Amino acid sequence: MSDKRTHRIRLQPIGVEIEAEHGAPLRDFLFEQGVEFPCGGQARCRGCRVLVHEGNVTATPAQCAKLSEAEIEAGWRLSCQCNVEDDLVIELRQWDAAILANDTAFTFTPQDGLGVAVDIGTTTMVAQLLDMSTGHVLGVRTALNSQARFGADIMSRVHYSVAGGGQEQLTTSVRVQISGLIQGLLTKAEVEDTDLRRVVLVGNSVMHHLFCGIDLEPLSHVPFEPVDDGLQTFSGRDLGWKIAQDTKVEFLPCLGGFVGSDILAGILATGVADSSKLVGLVDIGTNGEIVFGTRDRLICASAAAGPAFEGALISVGMRAASGAIWRVSSNGHGMQCEVLGDEEARGICGSGLVDAVAVGLDVGRVLPSGRLADGSSTLGLTEHVALTQTDIRQLQLAKGAIAAGIRIVLKDLGADLSDVEQIFLAGAFGNYVSHQSARRIGLVNFPDEKIEASGNTALLGAKLALFNQGDNSYSEILNKIEHITLSSDMEFQEIYVDEMSFPSDAVERATT
User: Fold this and answer.
1) CB under 8 A, 24+ apart: contacts of 429-432
2) Is the pLDDT of residue 509 over 50?
3) In a domain, 121, yes or no
4) What is the pLDDT, as a whole number, of residue 462?
5) Structural domain containing residue 10
6) Same domain, yes or no, for 228 and 138?
7) Are residues 197 and 63 in the same domain?
8) Residue 489: how many CB atoms within 10 A of its CB?
9) What contacts 204, CB < 8 A, 6 or more positions away?
């Protein structure tokens, strides 16, 4: 007989009270309150720690393997491994995620009605409502991707979908969430859903497949090539959305493998496909996506960077939000940290991680091999925040994958780093990371004047696509772009290993 008892859970310091059934997983409702699950609830990290002040929560063997005896005794738990057993008072660290939208002006041909552009990211999503007669943005809605409770990176979700049988659940999750964002936009703007003519969505290949209900199995193994990554068209009726039933909903086509329609949108936004000179677009996230070329030929690839640039799987990692160290510099005596929000540092985000290691290299506390100098076990940043040797290795793996990917794509174009005239860094990380620090660790080996932080090019490209009639512009790009698989390159392993080390001389690497 099932236990139908319910328990009251009070969350501090935000003052939220929730009722949950006995035995319900804590993660099912804590995610909505800002608790992260970087490893998808597999107890491989400590990112979802909460402090239990009142009530009983069993410390499972998996938790005891990740938390010290003192932490267990103090009430710390990995919430991904806990079920509701009692009335609880739980302390969690709530913050507001900084989600990058886009307000760049663009050229368009006026049309009737309203349109919605949506960027579905692995971690976050953002939707904008536009008046298509003026191009004005009438509203913006952002959210954490609800799928993130099943894994911080795309391969975790592929595994959950294929091996765990969860694809239908993830598809339903993202469709319901996008529907809610659109409903919120229409309600806030006080407009009728019958005026909504078109919705354009972009995202990486996994988000594309999950939203569209396309089998992810081909993306779960070598050669990681989807069977159907083209333009997908639906109606409001097809999706069961509470909008005009004939509203056209399009998910733009992907470019191959793990290079998704967010990069196609980025190409539209930056004009990479129209350039007479060699230029590039790099979107650095859990999956680093790379495009270089000219108006005559483009090559794209994806590099499995992992979630280090978003702070996940770093022992003190977190998103770029209140309490995160986001800038680090040397003050002559040690590390000078800048923290988002007016509060004590409680973690570090991706841009801060890159800064911290760059400064560590400059002051001799981190060696070019990545080892901490003088046999140290940690790189202290503040009284309560320090990076471990494993954290630095995670950064090396991530930056090595991106840097190697850039070199291989350029090699296939018959070019090298010095031939590139301009590189657009897309996404939140690319927008906030210090270019100097990125060069210092060997992530992007280009001079400052060639690097342009471009913001959310995926969202801007989706807005441009709202005004496209037909998909001819996509066809032009698709016909000139070639997707390559980095691991199939004979030199990949050699280049990757070479790029994992840090430059011994920042000036030398930045000018070669």
Assistant:
1) 429/284, 429/285, 429/309, 429/310, 429/350, 429/351, 430/282, 430/283, 430/284, 430/454, 431/100, 431/455, 431/456, 432/320, 432/326, 432/351
2) no
3) yes
4) 95
5) 6-91
6) yes
7) no
8) 20
9) 121, 122, 154, 254, 258, 259, 260, 261, 262, 287, 289
Global confidence as pTM? 0.79
**What's the whole-number average pLDDT of the chain?**
87
Predicted pLDDT of residue 179: 95
Q: Is residue 59 part of a domain?
A: yes
Q: Which of 56, 91, 126 is the C-terminal boundary of a domain?
A: 91
Contacts of 404 (CB under 8 A, 6+ apart): 303, 486, 492, 495, 496, 498, 499
Last residue of a domain, one of 91, 106, 135: 91
Q: Write the pLDDT tens digit of every residue in 417-429.
A: 999 999 999 887 7
Is 149 in the same domain as 256?
yes
Res. 97 pLDDT band, cuts 50 70 90: very low
Cα separation, 390 vs 405, whole angstroms? 23
pLDDT tens, residue by residue, 210-266: 999 999 999 988 888 888 889 999 999 999 998 888 899 999 999 999 999 999 999
